[in-house]
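EI: anyone free to look at a 303-residue chain?
SC: sure, send it
EI:
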Amino acid sequence: MNATTGEEILTYLVEDKLNPTTKSFNFFHGEEAVLEMTMLAINQFEAVPFNFTIEIVGMIRGPIIDDFSIVTDKDELKHFQVSFESLGGGTCIAVHWNDDSDLATYGAPEDCTTHFSWGNHVHSKIDIVMNITHTYGSYGTYTVIMIAKNKINSVQDFLKFVVTSVPCAPPRLTLVDQVLFFANAHKVKRAEDNTLQARASINCELTYRTRMWWRVMEVDSLMGETLRELTVREVVPSWNISQFTIPARFLPYGYYKLVFLITMWDPEVLGPDLPSRKSIHTHPGGGISPDGHIAEGRRQPRQ
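SC: here you go
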């Protein structure tokens, strides 16, 4: 039952006292919400409650498609991972391979017919983390585009990679305490230096030489869209190393997105057409705020 409204959702009689379970059932709630629920087990002697919380998610957030920097040859099966921070109901995922193949769709057939009627339906089951595969028949540079759409919103991500026999892959990146969604940004103090740490794993047999740099963008407080890019090149001393320190009071009040980029760089052994760049981003706060971002003189609600 809904512990807040008292609405009774399901009642069932336990037939096997040693195995008091029931089959799964569908529960529909028409909007995003956090619901306090109670399961109540009752017999002639007592009533025992169990309280729990469920979150109803509608919007699609945090789309990522990744190949983990694994280089494949032509006619070799290439693996991708698609992931999301949240995935609302009625979602269809479409993948454009950027070759001669048809658009591939994943999700309930009726949802995919609604959103991508021209696609080739591959599988009905989708999840916040799922693995997909494709085989490229020719050498070259490709950009695979992943689009996820439902009745509430549409998001996309893309990945550029190369199909080649050259044994040099883009670096693999991680960010310590990475935050993918801007509204979940950590609290930081504007009056203090704040440091972010990126880690790169090199997977190239031809060279270990790299170039790296950071970018800082101010983003909109409602949707996280980029408003402007701040100049850090040759301004912040650590702009071109993996450990980036934001100087105290450098950032004005607001939300921010920081991007770390690294590329294999050795013109003597790497051709100009070999894409070996990789990037990763995070959302830090910009100062003191109850919501994890800089708030100038007032509390700004998390969107």
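EI: The mean pLDDT is 82.
SC: 👍
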